[in-house]
Amino acid sequence: MAKAAVVIRAKNEARMIGETLKRVFAQHFDDFEVIVVDSGSTDGTLDLVRATDAKLVEIKPEDFTYGRALNVGVAATNAPIVAFISAHAWPMDKDWLANLVAPFADDQVAAVTGKPLPHLDCNPFDRRGLLRRYGTDMLYLHVGSSITYSNADAAIRRSDWEAEPFDETLTYSEDIAWANARLAAGRRIVYQPYAAAYHSHNETAAELYRRFDAEARARVAIGQGTERYRISRLLWDTFAGAAYDKWTVIKNREGWRWLKFAPVRRIAINLGRYTGSRNMPKDNEYNPIARIGLRAGIAVLQKFNYNLQRLAPYVVRATRKHNKPIHPKHLLKNNEAHYWYGPYIQGAKRVLDLGCNQGMHAVYAARHAEEVVGIDMDLQHLYVANFNARWEGHKNVTCMVYSAEKPLPFADGSFDVVIAFDIIEHLVERDLFLKEIHRVLTPEGTLLLSAPNSETTFKKLKRAAGLWDYSDPTHVIEYTRAELEDECKRGGFTCTHIEPVVLDTPFFGFIDFLGGFSLPLYERFDRYKREAVIDKPLESSGYRLVLKREAATG
Asked: Which residues pair with 450 in a beta bridge?
């Protein structure tokens, strides 16, 4: 049995498939087979395939759907890992297959999708989109990711396909539907930028219309269609999109041909979206002018706040409130609210601080516990954490580099208390994270956890404006109170106490900036936010939880 197989879907691909097969067979990978699923080629594609060692499987044109062709291809091999590549996509190098297969070393990975690169003759609009959208960092994907799973350059685990074959009734987006189903089943999908392939289209206006019409219809079929594409939105998207495309052509000196095609392209794309979404419910609330105004206002406000927040520590130093730039919150005289967890670590033998950052909580815990261990992935932060611990004379603190998304390097029942502040929202491996905390805690152990709240008014406004609503771009999830409690319950913990943190405000940067000039004023704002959130818990920036370890079952 081959270690891996490569399935190529084809129909009338004689112009490109020869190079595709040449590059696939040149891969530096031991023991793999190539399967071509053809659906009625008449242009010489079959002759090119038969001239190689590829296994040819033919299906009738009338039986073709993308999902059926893939299912036929996977069924034709017993390989545990099956890769897919379009007949007009060319692997960038000879390590494409090896890089695509590598993430499957993690048993939780169901699929891997590679990085599409533009062909040399790619139009300037698709080239712009591909180069901007797909980065160079390996990522775990989730539903709604800006990067989506695509069978044009991907690989799947055979056992996941057996559990969830591709939907043969869909005319489009069978890959997205399959990926969403596997994610819902708790499996992982990886974006692997080092499995890159040249894959782009130079579509005519008619081809663009058909593709976007089919995509919109597929969104309805797979449950991702939420609103009908309105005429007002069509007009705005066409006008704004054409202007953006023309600017791209002018800036990059792409030529008169593309300048003329820019408005035609946008008309075709948006007409396709419009006709394809006719079966979606009508969104009577959509107002393009209001939405544009809301987006612009929020964008300006966020930029204003982030810049002021970054300046605040330097204002602290400039006004000689401290000899180094630190956030004003660290200068407050009353820090009981910040170190609210003191009673829960008093007298503890061992405390574990996950995501310890610069050691603020680890150093505080060292004053009350016999031993403290902190872990973080940032070496610079760990250097500061260890320095701060030694500066205060704490020899009972050890901060080490380690990932919280791996099995923890500690024995069962090693810690009385685990601190996990503002870390779970950054993790894809949340189930493993909680499982490992459960394992390393003593039977009567305590987990102290905090996470951001997803249902504040400001975040709802950002969602309404179509903007990313998480409080940090590195977050992969944010919770409502009920969702957070349910997540912890599934991890084997009982919540004994939960409280809101502080009132969420869109003017956080302005408040921090003022705090650099006047600590009494900053303290008044801080006290107000903590008191006001008691009556408005849904407006809290996040929640703090005290959780007790439940007895392991099974």
From this structure: 421, 544
Q: What residue has token string 């950052």?
A: 357
**pLDDT tens, position by position, 177-194:** 999 899 888 888 999 999
- Residue 250: CA atoms inside 13 Å, Cβ hemisphere, count? 6
Region 254-274 average pLDDT: 89
**Under 8 Å between Cβ of 199 and 86:** yes
Span 66-93, average pLDDT: 95
CA atoms within 13 Å, Cβ hemisphere of 498: 21
Residue 334's pLDDT is what?
58
H or E segment to which residue 234 belongs: helix 231-252
- Per residue, the 3-state secondary structure of 438-494, as one string, reads HHHEEEEEEEEEEEEECCCHHHHHHHHCCCCCCCCCCCCCCECHHHHHHHHHHCCEE
3-state SS of 254-320? CCHHHHHHHHHHHHHHHHHHHHHCCCCCCCCCCCHHHHHHHHHHHHHHHHHHHHHHHHHHHHHHHCC
Strand order in the sheet with 542-549: 397-401, 371-376, 350-354, 415-421, 441-452, 542-549, 493-500
Question: 453 has which bridge partners?
Answer: 479
CA dihedral for 22, 27, 30, 31, sign (positive or negative): negative
The answer, yes or no, to whether residue 83 has pLDDT greater than 90, is yes
Q: Is the pTM of this model over 0.85?
A: no
Q: In angstroms, rounded to a whole number, what is the distance separating the alpha carbons of residues 120 and 38?
A: 26
Residue-wise pLDDT tens digits, 220-251: 777 665 566 777 778 888 888 889 889 889 98
Q: Where are the domains of the chain?
A: 4-201, 207-212+218-286, 328-549
Rounded to whole angstroms, how far apart are CA atoms 85 and 412?
45
pLDDT at 285: 47
Mean of the per-residue pLDDT values for the chain? Answer: 87
- Fold topology of 328-549: Rossmann fold (3.40.50)
CATH architecture label of 4-201: Alpha-Beta Complex (3.90)
Q: Which two tokens stand for residue 526?
A: 């801080």
Token pair 């611990």 is found at 389
Task: State the Cα–Cα distance between residues 514 and 511, nearest whole angstrom.
Answer: 5
Tokens of 469: 């609503």
For 93-108, what is each residue's pLDDT tens digit?
999 999 999 999 988 8
Whole-angstrom distance, CA of residue 460 vs CA of residue 453: 11
Q: How far apart, in whole angstroms, are the C-alpha atoms of residue 537 and residue 126?
A: 45
Distance, CA of 25 to CA of 14 (rounded, Å): 17
Q: How far apart are CA 1 and CA 65, in angstroms?
A: 28
Q: How many CA atoms lie within 13 A of 260 on its CB side?
A: 4
| CA pair distance 313, 149, nearest whole angstrom | 42
